[in-house]
Every structure is written in structure tokens, then in C-alpha cells.
């Protein structure tokens, strides 16, 4: 399995980092009383939004990782998940977004990931 490159930042930006835990519950509302709930599954993916500041050289490394190692984003990879940076298997849930950051040669790469249950 591919691994997040060591030449890229290992911690995402604090601003914008977000995790949505899996929704494993089915709810149905009767005519009166509390909603009835049951477990839908025993495991599900956690959706993660993470952004990184990168230089132009790091952006090139990321784009090569995406194109070659991840085969355009179709393959799962080991990613250093905060807070401790222990690697977890993830895959891209959406195409990465690239925007300019402060200063020339600075980029913000935004990722939407999902953990592999």
C-alpha cells in the first residue's frame, strides 16, 4: 500500500481540520414517542477534511504521488492521522483542491479523506 510521502508536511493545518465519525444508526419516527433506532452496520468510514500548506516543489511531489502511486486517486494509502501521526489506511473521497496561499510559490492543498473501516 502506498504511504504518504515523507517529503510532504506530516501534519495538516489546524484551521479547517474536521472529522465526521461514521453514522451507524437507522432512525424511524413513530407517530408518538421517541424515535426507534437500530444499528445499521458495525463499522463505517470516518470522513476527514484536511489541508496542507506546500511549496511548489512539495506540490509537484504530491501531484506525482496522486498520479502514480494512487493511480489518479483510486488507491488507498497510509496517512499520518493527527494527533499522534500514527498511520491509518485512507482513500480520497473527493478530488483534491489546490489554491494559492500567501506568497509566491506557496499552495494550499485541501483533501477529503475517508478511513477504511
Secondary structure class reads mainly beta
- The number of E-state strands comes to 8
Range of helix content: 10-25%
Poorly predicted sequence stretches spanning 5 or more consecutive residues? none
> In angstroms, what separates the terminal alpha carbons?
16 Å
Strand content: 35-45%
What features would you describe in this structure?
This protein is mainly β and 117 residues long. The chain has one domain. Helix content is 12%, strand content 39%. Strands 1, 4, 5, 6, 7 and 8 form a six-stranded antiparallel beta sheet that branches. Strand 5 (77-81) and strand 6 (86-92) form a beta hairpin. The longest helix has 14 residues, at 56-69.
TL;DR?
By secondary structure, this protein is mainly β. It is 12% helix and 39% strand. It has one helix spanning 56-69; strands at 18-20, 25-28, 36-39, 47-55, 77-81, 86-92, 97-100, 106-115.
Can you lay out the helices and strands and say which pair or pack?
Blueprint: E1 18-20, E2 25-28, E3 36-39, E4 47-55, H1 56-69, E5 77-81, E6 86-92, E7 97-100, E8 106-115
Q: Could you list some keywords that capture this structure?
A:
117 residues; mainly beta; 6-stranded antiparallel β-sheet; two-stranded antiparallel ribbon; 1 helix; 8 strands; 39% strand
